[in-house]
Amino acid sequence: MTLHIYNTMTRELEKFVPLVQGKVSMYVCGPTVYDYIHIGNARPAIFFDVVRRYLEASDYEVNYVVNFTDVDDKLIRKAEQLGSTVPEVAERFIAAFNENIAGLGIHKASINPRVTEHIPEILAFIEQLVNTGYAYESGGDVYYRTNKFTDYGKLSHQNMDELQLGIRIEVDERKENGQDFVLWKAAKPGEIAWDSPWGAGRPGWHIECSAMARKYLGDTLDIHGGGQDLQFPHHECEVAQSEAVTGKPLARYWMHNGYININNEKMSKSLGNGITVNELLKQTKREALRYFMLSSHYRSPLNFNDETIAQAENSVERVANCYGNLNHRLSVAGNVAEEDFGAIEERVTSIIEQFRAKMDDDFNTPDAITALFDLVSEANQYLQRPVVTVDALQLFLGAFEAMDNVLGLLPQEEEGLLDADIDALIVERTEARQAKNWARADEIRDLLAEQGIVLEDTPQGIRWKRK
């Protein structure tokens, strides 16, 4: 089966064909780094991480760009609140973002460009828009002339009349039209600013992504992604800016994930129900958070509550236990012939094909997870046999790892004791018990317990797992 993606631009499921065979250019809008990221930011971060992983598992070379908005009104206000500077605030929360991303098991982007490091490219982009009549200067600000771009609204599937009626537009006499949006903002006294042909100021929000996407991925990129809330106005404005300059489609495929609700209520500052990733990672395993995010189709809304997280924790525990049992049996298994190995191989291969078919169907992670649990069931049935073989165990383990390379649901090695250290301590504890050196045996038991290592007696000997 061939990968198909639901394209927000066309509202259709389309066969995925990248511009360059074997390569994928992918831009996902990143955070404005004035605070810790929240659960709403985590959904696109995790989902597009899985998209990127699956493309790489499908032998594509992926150039994955996630930007940092490191200057805007929110950063300026935050710096004032903290008695700090905009660059210092940005550095603090970029570091926090990177820590949170690692905590969620997300692979680092190919590059994280920052707005403040691309002012020349942004100014050049704006100048092109001014020179071609798509933008105009007014009172030190520069605005995009939306009436000139006849396709404005095509991504969000709204026409100009609907846009005028559908959103509140603040009266601004500096604009020719209420829908025009700012490309360059004149600086107020004391604000961070850069020189420009229109006076000191800083970039508007939308222009930064157009300039940086073009620099790192070219005039047209393969996939542009982000949350549903970015579809309008942010991505709509990107389309207008970029296509006015290049005359080419900004992206071949537009992907947008759905909203997250908290206890069936929309997450918002006014309700005070936002949850930061920092808080979540203190309470919940990263695997459970990833499972929760992937358990519904990415375009569907997702409801966060204690019950859904508890279900996610139970599910990933089941996967981890099966994987741990396979590895444990592998350490004591003999490599003898297995009469029905061909039948086992056929079932495992069928499950892998099912997994790929679901991922090829617009990254249907809920059904891909179902395939993973089919593998868990098959493996658990196999593990009930008194005699197992290396070939069959390695077959199961290989399938687990192939799926997990995409989903990222298995536990990652934590800081502290390495697996080899734990194995060595268990051997030492067993020898201490045999020598009736109870003090040393108890010391090792306590050390392992402090590290969150749980020991279990099995017919094949002691096995361990992390809490």
TrEMBL record:
Binding positions for Zn(2+) per the UniProt entry: 29, 209, 234, 238
Catalytic activity from the UniProt record: tRNA(Cys) + L-cysteine + ATP = L-cysteinyl-tRNA(Cys) + AMP + diphosphate
CC cofactor note: Binds 1 zinc ion per subunit.
The protein's required cofactors: Zn(2+)
CDD domains: CysRS_core
Binding positions for ATP per the UniProt entry: 269
Pfam families named among the record's database cross-references: CysS_C (PF23493), DALR_2 (PF09190), tRNA-synt_1e (PF01406)
Cysteinyl-tRNA synthetase class Ia DALR domain sequence ranges: 354-418
Cellular compartment(s): Cytoplasm
Sequence motif 'KMSKS' region, location on chain: 266-270
Single biological process term from Gene Ontology: cysteinyl-tRNA aminoacylation
GO terms for cellular component: cytosol
A molecular function GO annotation: cysteine-tRNA ligase activity
Motif 'HIGH' region: positions: 31-41
InterPro entries found in the cross-reference section: Cys-tRNA-ligase, Cys-tRNA-synt_Ia_DALR, Cys-tRNA/MSH_ligase, CysS_C, Rossmann-like_a/b/a_fold, tRNA-synt_1_cat_dom, tRNAsynth_Ia_anticodon-bd
This protein's UniProt keywords: Aminoacyl-tRNA synthetase, ATP-binding, Cytoplasm, Ligase, Metal-binding, Nucleotide-binding, Protein biosynthesis, Zinc
EC number(s) reported in the record: 6.1.1.16
Oligomeric and partner information: Monomer.
Family recorded in the similarity comment: Belongs to the class-I aminoacyl-tRNA synthetase family.
PANTHER family recorded: CYSTEINE--TRNA LIGASE, CYTOPLASMIC, CYSTEINYL-TRNA SYNTHETASE
Protein name: Cysteine--tRNA ligase
Taxonomic path: Bacteria, Bacillati, Bacillota, Bacilli, Bacillales
Gene: cysS
